[in-house]
Description:
Blueprint: E1 10-16, H1 23-36, E2 41-47, H2 48-52, H3 59-76, E3 83-87, H4 92-101, H5 107-112, H6 114-123, H7 131-134, H8 136-146, E4 151-153, H9 159-176, E5 185-187, H10 217-226, H11 246-254, H12 258-270, H13 275-301, H14 304-332, H15 345-351
Parallel strand pairs: 1-2, 2-3, 4-5
Helix pairs in contact: 3-13, 4-8, 4-14, 8-9, 10-13, 11-13
Bound molecules: tryptophan (TRP).
Amino acid sequence: MTFRKDARPVILTGDRTTGPLHLGHFVGSLRNRVALQHSHRQYLLLADAQALTDNAHDPGKVRRNVLEVALDYLAVGIDPGVTTICLQSALPALAELTMLYLNFVTVARLERNPTIKEEIQARGFGRDIPAGFICYPAAQAADITAFRATIVPVGEDQAPLIEQTNEIVRRINRQAGRDILAEARALIPEMGRLPGVDGKAKMSKSQGNAIPLSASDAEIAEAVNRMYTDPDHLRVSDPGRVEGNVVFTYLDAFDEDRDALNELKAHYRRGGLGDMTLKQRLASILREIVGPIRERRAALARDPDHVLDIIRTGTLAGRERTKVTLEEISTALGLFSLDGQANGFRARSALGLGMSPPTLGGEGGA
Ligand code: TRP
């Protein structure tokens, strides 16, 4: 398989298939992906294998959400004509690369990864950490490098994983004696992550503080009404605080009329601007963003076979792409090759290759 020369930088990113995506994902990374898909060669991973590392007890959830996440991608404007969507578990080269990379990272380093540490805490694993889970940073390094990606659009919580990927890249390059792999850069939105509607640092479905991309107008209104503003802003005439005010954080993320927003902030600080006015503005902006996404999603959901076709086509392309990289890295690391070329004549003649189909059952046979 050869690839057309394509000078565009390669993007790879993905999402665990544990639930439909929400506005936090939209701000954190989906918006970037839609904006960059024409100027870059973009691959997206439906990360079901990674989802399994902490959901092995519930594979049905992981399986069912593959289609949900794919629907979210398409609904926000990912164009399957230019972006390749792949199913992670159907790319065997990723698993093989992971096995190689695990030899270039220590258990202590995996345990020190800040993202992993936080997730172990959040999941209450204690000492009973699934080995697949603690090792997933090596798998994520495989995901990124298998596509030879240099740009990885992710939320800020993923930065330590990209750092660890680059450590593995440097070790592989040192062992190979040349720069067989390129380092990658995390593309993180300036505003940081979107807080939950309850003001908690992270929007997350499991916390019940998320606005899904398929939210109805009523759900949006309900979520916005729940938002925490400034607890000291009791009367409309009181001066209010903008910093730490969740409604303003959301307006910062979604309101494109910057002048109007700055005027609103000044007015709020002076006093005389009520929370209801603010919340109505935010609800109306969110309705305009989510409405078309929700409608496209519903239309696509009526034809799951079409979505499945998109995933299938993307996965076949991804399979070729990742297989080529695996072969290049295996060769660069000096592994035994059944093609013979790289091994020296001793290995070749010892196995009797080239005479008859190889049997790997040992010398001489029974
Ligand atoms: N870890 C990411 C998440 O939790 C998902 C993911 C899997 C990913 N493989 C990746 C992200 C490769 C970026 C690059 O959402």
